[in-house]
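Board notes (copied after class):
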Amino acid sequence: MTRAPWPRAWRKAEPKSGYDVIIIGGGGHGLATAYYLAANHGINKVAVIERGDIGSGNVGRNTTIVRSNYQLDGNTQFFEHSLKLWEGLSHVLNYNVMLSQRGQIVLAHGPSQLDVIARKGNIMRLNGIDAELLDRDELMRELPYLDYSRDARFPIHAGLLQRRAGTARHDAVAWGYARAADRLGVDIIEHCEVRGFTEAGGRITGVRTNRGEILADRTAISVAGHTSHLAAMAGLRLPVESHLLQAFVTEPIKPFVDHVISFGAELFYISQSDKGGLVFGGHIDGFNSYTQRGQFPKVQEVAECAVALIPAISRLRVLRHWAGIQDMTPDGSPFIGRTPRENLYLNGGWCYQGFKATPATGWCFAHTLAHGEEHPLIRHLSLDRFEHGNGYDEYGLGNWTYKQ
């Protein structure tokens, strides 16, 4: 018996001559923006232009963590809005994004770090966000497999738990937003590379692509890892560098790590996938690159963190590792909103934070494109903030590298 081929999840759209909005970038942020433009604002004459295949960029190259444990005013509210959207996303999209609210625990390895996470927890609770400060005994019950020995290289003092945090399936997020946007009339155009912008009277009027010229009233850049490259085509020089961020997965084992765990001694985070593999990552490689291929010194460093934190996994084999291209900004926070070029909008510079921000970014960026002004939740992330000394260094505020 011959089975019929599976139906397409979204149409194979051909580019039209003009749109209300063009979104460059078919990752999570671009697709979410297109969906919310149609769903929230009734704007469905939208094209999402992707150089390759939908979901082949950073949305499929991350460690899938979602959380809202942020400290800075503005970031706190933005990421909590995103987490609330995550909690209803499968229902809204009618597509299972496999949200697993297993909880995230941030560890503290000294008295100063304990003070930092206690302050963070208080800020979260004052903003109506769940947070629990766990002492060493409580951590030993929640995470019995960590190294609590007298000879531990990094003694564990306490941890901050956000139970609503967890993980989601990254490719399901891309596919869910793509299908939902398509059903609202959005054109998703794959294998369409932008090679320049069209202009008239000093305004951006559209894009030039390998598939012809496409005009639009508003054009949005949402291309994680390549933001500075695309912006340069429009004459913008951004304070953004592109770096590699590696992720790793081990051979599958029985259920073992029930939470997402963040190591306070170094930037390291680990969880366990539904398939049984341990998924983890660390810092960026530290040099500019577009290769999507990580370097061995970082492999060693991340492996050392894993074994220092959980000695029992020392004999596991790493099956594969990969790299996403990160847009890094001077303060570790993104840019969302208008640019100095009329009718050109920017969403980029997400550093380590892009995946968890997907729903709120789409929501707020869609509002900005629909109304021509930034959504209140993203006004602190404007492109011109450094002119006024308004940096938002969330990582610098919470950099808990252990020093003794």
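Comment from the instructor: Confidence is low (pLDDT under 50) at residues 399-404. The first helix runs from residue 28 to 41.
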